[in-house]
Amino acid sequence: MGIRKLGYVGLNVTDVDAWVTLFERTLSVGITPVTIGTKEVALAELDEFKYRLALHPSAQDSLREVGWIVDSPRELDRVTERLTDAGFAVREGSADETELRGATQMRWFTDHFGYRVELAVGEAKVRTSPARSADARTGVTGLGHLVLAGPKLDELRELYECVLEFRLTDYRAPGLYFLRCNASHHSIALARADTPSIHHIEIEHDTIDDVGRAHDRAQAGGVPISISLGRHMNDKAISFYIRNPSGFHLEIGCGGIEVGDGWIPHDFGTSDVWGHRHADANPFASPAS
Asked: Are strands 91-92 and 62-70 parallel, antiparallel or unpaired?
């Protein structure tokens, strides 16, 4: 009950065209431009629903909002009450915002990192299958998870675990935590950093062959591969990472495990089974205390 899954992410981006090129050429993902009020927004079509990533033209690159799907209006009221009791000011989304998300109802608040967190009821299914180029295979299947970093880690953990009722899956002491709201290993991970930032967003693929084909297209297109192909120790996903036009990572992955109610949270120790070599310094190699 309550929050069911990660629904969408909105980004402020300085170069929409570069993002569109990245999605179309590397991931074979269609982009739909829509006009809301006087502004045009580019929507990335990761599955059959309206969108999972929204690209808002901006003078700076930043995370605009994180949207979580809530089971029902009754659950939205219950989660809202929990947030209000915890001291958060919860506001109603505007009609334009709710329409853009494909939701029937939407509320939002600001988290300890300063990010807008949205709670939406309903998802608009606008096609029978994802829009893909004619030569595309199964490829992208949806939005997997995101990783946020910032200075108020303890407060943000309390928000997600104690107020929003996420469950801790595993962690690396002393500053990296993986949290779930459904059977997927994690929908969000939280890390400690000096300033708020988004480390990466993961784009789910159907098979290792789909990941491999994306890897080939990235190399052929000169897309910077920021973390090499590898398998994570904790969720067992096979993936590689690319540096997107806004400067953070996109993880291109498949095969993450699911966990049940009997799962015991633990420190998983080593980051990877194999691979995942970083082109730049790995901020999570030794999480800051």
From this structure: unpaired
On the question of pLDDT at 15 being above 50, the answer is yes
Full DSSP string of 253-280? EE---B--TT---EE--SSEEEE--BSS
The H-or-E segment that residue 240 falls in is strand 238-243
148, two tokens: 């946020």
Contact status, residue 45 vs residue 131, Cβ threshold 8 Å: yes
Q: What is the DSSP letter of 163?
A: I
| Among 153, 244, 238, 140, CA closest to 192 | 153
Which domains occur in the chain, in start order? Answer: 3-121 (3.10.180.10), 140-275 (3.10.180.10)
* pTM more than 0.85: yes
Please write the tens of the pLDDT for every residue from 160-205.
999 999 999 999 988 999 999 999 999 999 999 999 999 999 999 9
Q: How far apart are CA 171 and CA 174, in angstroms?
A: 8
Q: Which of 27-36, 189-198, 248-257 has the lowest mean pLDDT?
A: 27-36
Say which DSSP state 94 is in.
Answer: P
